[in-house]
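Q: Here's a chain of 334 amino acids. Please give me its 3D structure as tokens.
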Amino acid sequence: MNVRRRHISAVALTAVAALGFGTLTACSSDSAAAGDTGSFDVVASFYPMAFLAERIGGEHVHVTSLTQPGQEPHDLEISARQTAQLEEADAALYLKGLQPSVDEAIGQSPIATKIDAAELTTLEEHGTEAGHDEEHGDEHGTEAGHADEHAHEDEHGHDHEGGDPHIWLDPVRYAEVAEGVGKAFQKADPDHAADYRKNTAALVKDLKALDEKFRTGLANRTTDVFVTTHAAFGYLAERYGLTEEAISGLDPDTEPSGARVKELQKIAKEDGVTTVFYETLVSDKTAKTLAGDTGLRTDVLDPVEGITDRSRGEDYFQVMEANLTALRTALGAR
């Protein structure tokens, strides 16, 4: 669709098409990667954004993800080839504050349609809060184990000053983002606006149904507290009245202090915690160590940052429903 590509040499087109950057299959061509596909070409920063683009765009959109399946998105560094790829896309869909190299590359690119998901909903600070339960927070001191230094910028330079970026783990906020993306697609590609509107409505309906599953599934539980390695679930915890206690902060690679580990051991005993959750894209070593020291079991709570062979499902909805099952077991839901 992008007319600029008509002036690119055949050699350049061949080079771009050969890159094979994690392309999803929202259009019929599997081989083209931000090339002259005849579709509305969207470059998405990582899986939750690519999933939105694919569901909303349907057959009219060719979606390419900058983050490979199985790659930790927080650690992504944009290559020169990916920068060139961005320049030839019709639109970029990303979440500012999660992947600094993506933010910089998109900011400097000439793409006409730049969609920042962070601007389509409300972000909150979860840097020094986890459970969003003031009484519980006062009792344990620092909620979720998010040290102050993680509230704005972690040791890897990930800037979270604009708020916790993990909005897709709250189906309600994710639906708000979906609606904004749908409107952006309609404006950028008006020829297919009716289909984008229809696809957006269907996706929002599915997300509302998922929200209801979480509400009813977690309604009757014996504890509100769950322990995770990565503080990704602040929005989910807030939505359903839970308390997230994270071993590390917003950065999944941060090592916890000895004091934090002791604090979590105390919390687990006092609040009837049964499980330490870890995720598929990050080592489970810390979770298993804490679980072993406290006599707890471990299980997966997936932040759905990417789908791999180890994921408990093939897409966002399946993995989120697997998360619900895991939480119900850990929280003693009936």
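Q: Can you summarize the key feature?
A: The chain has eleven helices and eight strands.
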